[in-house]
């Protein structure tokens, strides 16, 4: 059945791949957010249809002399430009945030809370647990914010070809957002540890709840406000191969059912109509 359906053509000479190359309606494109992710979804859809088409139909031209690939490139030209603009804008703003975090946490490693011993130069709170938490969190924030800047820089300098939209760009964007989130969490954790170090002897005057809530509130807001975008990006980056995989196995019939005799017994005269020539 799958082979027969793939050979059908319409009155304009378009086969199934020609139709899959057309740009869908806006409500179909808006299933995912972001023009770059929409372009990736369209590329994956085109490739999935291409897999079930005979090789001769992949390069077949319609009555206008257009191949499926030519139709896809022409109809998705504007979407590709919008995807490049969206990807660069997102990477630019995220890289700015990562650079700000790196700017803040770098000097914090040398101006430790509580100061240093004037005789030895060793930090006063060196042996405390909160100081270890502060220093480790500050180092993690510095490491991941710098990594995030480099990842987003690679997004900005990408070639933005059609193949880049399938895996390379979504994975880089997901990696950059992941490292950015880790750096934000580590920076706020370092702030909490520094607050406990400074006010550890005066906790009654500074409510502990305020110190603990300081990192929780911005992290929660960051996750809630960007949840939908994050979900689309990570799904497109890491499970894109499963987006168009059928759960019902419609075309995976048993081999003995695929013979012409069995097909005619099951579908009667409809089967004779299905195997009509495609010309």
From TrEMBL:
GO cellular component: membrane
Start and end residues of each PGG domain: 84-198
Membrane as UniProt keyword: yes
Superkingdom assignment: Eukaryota
Positions of transmembrane segments: 90-110, 130-153, 173-199, 205-230
Signal sequence annotation: none
Keywords, in A-Z order: Membrane, Transmembrane, Transmembrane helix
Keyword Transferase among record annotations: no
Name of the protein this chain belongs to: Ankyrin repeat-containing protein ITN1-like
Source species of the chain: Juglans regia (English walnut)
């Amino acid at each position: 059945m799958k082979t027969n359906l793939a050979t059908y053509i319409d009155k304009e000479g378009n086969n199934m791949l020609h139709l899959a190359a057309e740009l869908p309606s806006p409500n179909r494109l808006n299933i995912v957010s972001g023009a770059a992710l929409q372009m990736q979804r369209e590329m994956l859809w085109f490739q999935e249809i291409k897999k079930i088409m005979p090789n001769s139909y992949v390069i077949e031209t319609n009555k206008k002399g257009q191949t499926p690939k030519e139709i896809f490139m022409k109809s998705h030209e504007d979407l590709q430009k919008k995807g490049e603009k969206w990807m660069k804008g997102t990477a630019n703003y995220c890289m700015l945030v990562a650079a700000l975090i790196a700017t803040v946490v770098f000097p914090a490693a040398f101006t430790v809370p509580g100061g240093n011993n004037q005789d030895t130069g060793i930090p006063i709170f060196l042996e405390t647990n909160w100081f270890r938490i502060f220093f480790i969190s500050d180092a993690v924030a510095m490491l991941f914010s710098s990594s995030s800047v480099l990842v987003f820089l690679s997004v900005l300098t990408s070639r933005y070809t059609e193949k880049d939209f399938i895996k390379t760009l979504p994975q880089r964007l997901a990696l950059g957002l992941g490292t950015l989130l880790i750096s934000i969490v580590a920076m706020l954790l370092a702030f909490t540890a520094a607050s406990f170090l400074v006010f550890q002897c005066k906790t009654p005057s500074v409510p502990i709840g305020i110190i603990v809530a300081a990192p929780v509130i911005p992290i929660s807001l960051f996750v809630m406000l960007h949840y939908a975008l994050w979900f689309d990006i990570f799904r497109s980056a890491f499970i894109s191969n499963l987006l168009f995989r059928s759960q019902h196995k419609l075309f995976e019939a048993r081999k003995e059912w695929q013979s012409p005799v069995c097909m005619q017994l099951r579908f009667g005269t409809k089967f004779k109509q299905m195997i009509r020539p495609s010309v």
